[in-house]
Amino acid sequence: MSDNAIVAIVVREHGEGTVELPTTVIKAEFATFADAERVFREALRQYERILDTLSVQLAKSLAEWDGDGRRAYEAAHAR
């Protein structure tokens, strides 16, 4: 299929014949998608590192909690 391929979409509507939608030219560059995926994965890795750091900090903080504050936190996160 060439870059200029035209795709005609035909759909069945309520079981009564067919309706042909306008033809559409679909064009995409693989390199653009690959670059976007790379950027997304790097951002995801950065967010995961941040979440890991926050999780460690929270665990240290929770170790110091007791009483009503600790019970309220546990109740809120038990849902």
Plain-language structure description:
- With 79 residues, this protein is of the alpha+beta class.
- The chain has one domain (6-77).
- It has two helices and four strands; from the N terminus they run ββββαα.
- The chain has helices spanning 30-64, 67-77; strands at 6-7, 10-12, 18-20, 24-25.
- The strands form two sheets. The protein has a two-stranded antiparallel ribbon. A two-stranded antiparallel ribbon has the order 2-3.
- The longest helix is centred in the middle third of the chain and has 35 residues, at 30-64.
- The radius of gyration is 26 Å and the shape is elongated.
- The chain starts with 5 loop residues before the first strand and ends with a helix.
Topology diagram in text:
Elements: E1 6-7, E2 10-12, E3 18-20, E4 24-25, H1 30-64, H2 67-77
Antiparallel strand pairs: 1-4, 2-3
Characteristic key phrases:
single chain, 79 residues, alpha+beta, two-stranded antiparallel sheet, 2 helices, 4 strands, 13% strand, elongated
